[in-house]
Amino acid sequence: MSHLFDHHGAPGQGYAQPAPILPASSLVLPDSLIRKSAPRWPRISEPEMVRHYTWLSKRNFGIDTGFYPLGSCTMKHNPRVNEVIAQIPGIADIHPHQPEHHLQGLLSIYHEMQHMLEIVAGMDQVTLQPVAGAQGEFTAVRCVQEYFRLRGEDQRTKVIVPDSAHGTNPASAAMCGFEIVEIPSRIDGRIDLDALRAVADETTAVMMITNPNTLGLFEADILEASAIVHNVGGQMYYDGANFNAILGITSPGLMGFDAVHFNLHKTFSQPHGGGGPGSGPIGVKAHLADFLPGPIVKKRPILADEAKHAIDDMWFGWYEPTHSIGKVQQWHGNAGAIIRCWAYYRRYGNGLTTMSQHAVLNANYLRHVLHREAKAAGVGDMIVDGAETDVAKHEFTISLGPAKESHGISAMDVAKGLLDMGYMAPTVYFPLVVPECMMIEPTETESKETLDTFARDFAKVLQVDAETLHAAPITTPVRRVDEVYAARNLCLRHPYDDD
Amino acid sequence: MVDQLPNLGREAEMLAIMGMSSIEDLFADVPDEVRMKGPLPLRDAQSEEEIIADARRLLGSNVALGERVSFLGAGLYRNYVPAAVFQLITRGEFLTSYTPYQPEVSQGMLQAMWEFQTLISELVGLPIANLSLYDGSTAAAEAITCCVRVHTRKATQKDTVYVSELTPPDRMSVVENYCQGAEIKIRLLRHNPDGTVNLSSAKDAAGSCGVYVEQPNPIGILDGGLPLLKEIIGEHTALIVAVQPISLGLVEAPGAYGADIVVGEGQPLGSPITGGGPIYGIFACSQPYLRLMPGRIVGRSIDVDGKEAFCLTLSTREQHIRRHRATSNICTNETLIALMGAMHMSLLGPEGLHDLAVRNMAACTLGKQKLASIEGIHLPHASSHHFQEFVIEVPGTASDCLAYLDSVGIVGGFDVHRWYADRPNWLLVSFTDQTQANQIELLAEHLEVWAADQGVTA
């Protein structure tokens, strides 16, 4: 074990700093402002520190380590040139309060990204300000809220979400102050139009939905759903978590949506960094554009005194919409993430369609070979599809319900067994509408061989007896972690001897 | 041609195995009415070499602060971050992982974040810290909604918080967006002409759900009155203090004077400014707020063999479980940047943090001495204590002054007029450990020239 707080070396050995430009003795602070006791931080030299974090990294699983089929998270390869680009001083060392003429390059990239996202989403205006998908949801719902306030439609107090929706949808809408109306999904996980009709009325503000849905199925009735909501005067919101399936194939605009968020980090591959950062731009139809948070980049003719700073035949300027809801993050969004995603977009250009085709190809292929290999191994009856369907989109669900019933093997057991085989486990127990659910998203950056091998290994896990699987994993840095113990014996920081 | 797809050229083979003949078969469920017709009207794919060349050209046209002499801070600061941080963060096991839902293969990030929680907890003097929010403004907003959840039942001023009137409008705007849904009433906490909190008007905040102040405050002043605030507002009103984390190498930790929640822009610890993101927001609190706080938190536990192990805990507060009753909608956060912060804090150690704070304050102090002596330049808060930035009042508009300084290669600071409509001639100048004495001399010389010129034309 390596523990950061076990290091008690000499003061200041981590890295030596230059002397201050005035001696410390010349600084004056009254006693009420002076810190009385220093933080009990470790004292660790650089060699020890590098070894500590390297040791930690080896106890962590990333896409670089192995196949990471975590449904809904789009764990695709992160091209390394994007990391190099993000270190260029023209992004790493710029401040959002610098004047426009210092940041024409940044603004041009923002403009290009807005334009690209408007095209793939079929929306009229994009803002890059929200910094995560959930924040994008919150921002878009806020914009719709202000839109209705301005129209005097204050009676629209409800937001409709399917019961299979991501948890962020109801959480974001509730943060805006809306009442959540959850509607049941059909048995195949798709939207129940009758259930929607039953709740849609003049109090409906927004319906939030993702398509493909969380079972990886395309909602073929989406135009009908949009019509139902629009007919009562509500707005349609597209949760872009599953955008990877549809680039160049269809768009939220074509499906009748009024607003959409993008999980830029998923679709355009900002490394997920153990939980973040992300980037959650939103796009809206023209009637909502005035409510977006700024800054938005717009092009205009160059003024005479700007010519020497221009990098294009037009000037890129920040723009604040008239009825903007204001800000949701203090700065210009996650600029560093947007730059990486821009580099990712440039890698594909109009080939983004091919990217989505391969995401869907890989998901369907894996679904096929998973069943094939399970059958071949004689364990085909332990899994069933989460929903009856001919094709899935970028992800699919299976249910370990039969395995649970006949062998006492749960989705969690199989997940832990997969860890022992050197894989990250798929998303488990979501969506809740599928019993013993596993949600599997391979992404387009996995080879056929990886998918074949995974399918065979998955079948091997299904052949393991329940008792052995209950004990899995056994090859990982630690074995099954006791989450109940963690919650009952809260230890949220290092316990110092002198506490 | 795209080079990121391992199965390019193998589509037919894979489709055949599935009994399909065309990629189109995979999209048979997408109705024709919603199909996009024709290719995406976007540019062609580029190679890695072309992309990096374009990136260098476009980003190279931005003015990086390191190319100039810069005194721009106002919430984000250019500190030195040691090289080891940038090297270690490229480890793919950290970089390309996601939320540690499978703790057995995520011990590295979980332990690193548990250590981060400890580092932040020690830094601010409170027992609990989460593993980051998006930035300082969202941390402030989440702290305010959190304190209302905790206190409003017993509060005499229900759903009411008092927020420093100096809070910059862009930060306040975030707070307002987060508060409006919960119908939280925001009242302004008054300040004295010297920039410190007006303690007698702070009495009005007693019985409300919380008070939000910043230390140092947005115009750089360290307020010696803040340690008195908790006693004034009382036990049932949360004291929320936003900090510049490096200042805590010298300045008293808010936990030591009764703060209930500490938030802040973590950026100076571990992260370059990066155009304002990704950075990370600090959120720390005391025990009563634990179960109603936002964001992820790591707990130490054991595995089935009784071996030390870490996992996410108290998840029932979060959106993926509690859905619309969650304490926040946050899911993706800023873990990787928080990890950079943890690495920076580790290398600094307690003495290193102190030295870093001294270097920041020393540069600021020298700046104050030099700029105060310029004819025509006035320091409205000259007798106040400053950590790393202060306001100068210039003879003309701050915006004209900044334009002049820009013309001679100096990023002169922040035009406070963008925050406060009644302050057209306030310039906020910031100093960090990177500020050199000769740069301060250069700023002083040019300010003197410009100020003298204003005198002539006035």
What can be said about this structure in brief?
The complex is a heterodimer of chains A (499) and B (458). Chain A is of the alpha/beta class and 499 residues long.
Topology (SSEs and partners):
The complex is a heterodimer of chains A (499) and B (458).
Chain A: H1 46-58, H2 81-86, H3 89-92, H4 104-121, E1 125-127, H5 133-150, E2 158-162, H6 168-175, E3 179-183, H7 193-199, E4 204-209, H8 222-231, E5 235-240, E6 259-262, H9 264-267, E7 282-284, H10 286-289, E8 296-300, E9 315-319, H11 335-348, H12 352-376, E10 384-385, E11 396-399, H13 401-407, H14 411-420, E12 427-428, E13 437-440, H15 448-463, H16 466-470, H17 483-488
Parallel strand pairs in A: 2-3, 2-4, 4-5, 5-6
Antiparallel strand pairs in A: 1-7, 6-7, 8-9, 10-11, 11-13, 12-13
Chain B: H1 11-17, H2 48-60, E1 69-70, H3 83-89, H4 92-95, H5 107-124, E2 128-129, H6 136-151, E3 160-164, H7 169-180, E4 185-189, H8 199-202, E5 210-215, E6 221-222, H9 226-233, E7 238-243, E8 261-265, E9 281-285, E10 298-302, E11 308-312, H10 319-322, H11 335-372, E12 385-386, E13 389-393, H12 398-407, E14 410-411, E15 414-415, E16 426-430, H13 437-457
Parallel strand pairs in B: 1-14, 3-4, 3-5, 5-7, 7-8
Antiparallel strand pairs in B: 2-9, 6-12, 8-9, 10-11, 13-16, 15-16
Order of helices and strands of chain B: HHEHHHEHEHEHEEHEEEEEHHEEHEEEH
Strand order of the largest sheet of chain B: 2-9-8-7-5-3-4
Percent of residues in β-strands of chain A: 5-15%
Strand content of chain B: 5-15%
Q: What top-tier CATH class of the largest domain in chain A fits best?
A: Alpha Beta
Based on the structure given, which CATH architecture of the largest domain in chain A is correct? 3-Layer(aba) Sandwich
- The strand count of chain B comes to 16
Number of strands of chain A: 13
- When the domains of chain B are counted, the total is 2
